[in-house]
Amino acid sequence: MLTRAIPSPPQGVWQLGPIPIRAYALCIIAGIVAALLLSKKRYQDRGGDGEVVYDAALVAVPSGIIGGRLYHVITDHDKYFCDSCNAVDALKITNGGLGIWGAIALGTLAVALYFRIKKIPLGPFADAVAPGIILAQAIGRLGNWFNQELYGYPTDVPWALEIYERVDDSGMLAPVTGRSTGEVLATVHPTFLYELVWNLLIFALLLWADKRFSLRGGQVFVLYVAGYTAGRFVIELMRSDAATHIFGLRVNTVVSAVVFAAAVLTFIIMRARQRSRDTQSLGSAAIERSDSAAVES
């Protein structure tokens, strides 16, 4: 018997009259609010109009939710399209299931298109919002805790997570919407917590690196992608929930590896180009000073 373990919440949904209050949705909303506030300040510090952040959010949030849900449904289609499945469940995002890859991809594409139409430089904005995005992801992972999902293999480490049996008012099993009976079904690796902590570390890294190295032109965003995928690759290897496999690996493991490699290569190229531009600028400035001194003499 474990002497210490992390308990799961007894329930993740509360009824306010006829309205279900879902912790998963509240965590996502809290993450979005935190990202907006931080991103607005960072964008203004870069000389941007803070209101643009809210305008972009109106484009990014719904696009991200749609993209995240599409990715989840496509990669876990067996959960929604089978003989005993109800396809309508594919639309129930409050029950959990948003793929970050689809959310970032479609959200970024939508914002890029919006900025192109408005003729606003995308790089400074991307750098401003990157820390806020991963902070929002960290907060959103708490929703998985309430839903008792995305956990790892059984373990007896002191920080193991207790998974409870949950039932509805009729006594039927209801892992997401039900209430705990107090029976512990398993103690597992809290991979949601591992990712939460990793995201916070990358959040701190982005703030430090941005200030220390004067990253610009989208470099902070690319560094965010590289940092996040590095941790996600390792964490995916620890998860035990059902998932689509490619080459014998979970699909998210493969995607993490591919996106990480692409992000690292992109970051290296971007840094090299920035150093080249900086060198040219210094050279041009030196020539101008020399010419000016010659004229004065």
Write a structural description.
By secondary structure, this protein is mainly α. It has one domain. Helices cover 61% and strands 10% of the residues. The protein is built from seven helices and six strands; from the N terminus they run E-E-H-H-H-H-E-E-H-H-E-E-H. The protein has helices at residues 23-45, 50-75, 100-118, 122-147, 191-213, 219-236, 251-296, and strands spanning 13-16, 19-22, 161-167, 179-188, 245-246, 249-250. The strands form three sheets. It has a two-stranded antiparallel ribbon with strand order 1-2.
Please render the helix and strand layout as text.
Blueprint: E1 13-16, E2 19-22, H1 23-45, H2 50-75, H3 100-118, H4 122-147, E3 161-167, E4 179-188, H5 191-213, H6 219-236, E5 245-246, E6 249-250, H7 251-296
Antiparallel strand pairs: 1-2, 3-4, 5-6
Helix pairs in contact: 1-2, 1-4, 2-3, 4-5, 4-6, 5-6, 6-7
Could you give a short description of this structure?
This protein is mostly helical and 297 residues long. Helices cover 61% and strands 10% of the residues. A hairpin with a 2-residue loop joins strand 5 and strand 6 (249-250).
Shape by Cα distribution? globular
Spatial strand sequence of the major β-sheet: 1-2
**Annotation field: number of helices:** 7
Number of strands: 6
Q: Spell out the helices and strands N to C.
A: EEHHHHEEHHEEH
User: How is the biggest beta sheet arranged?
Assistant: 2 strands, antiparallel
Quaternary status of these chains?
single chain
End-to-end distance: 87 Å
Mean pLDDT: 90
The helical percent reads 55-70%
Which class do the helix and strand fractions yield? Answer: mainly alpha
Strand content: 5-15%
Query: How much is the radius of gyration in Å?
Result: 23 Å
Overall domain count: 1
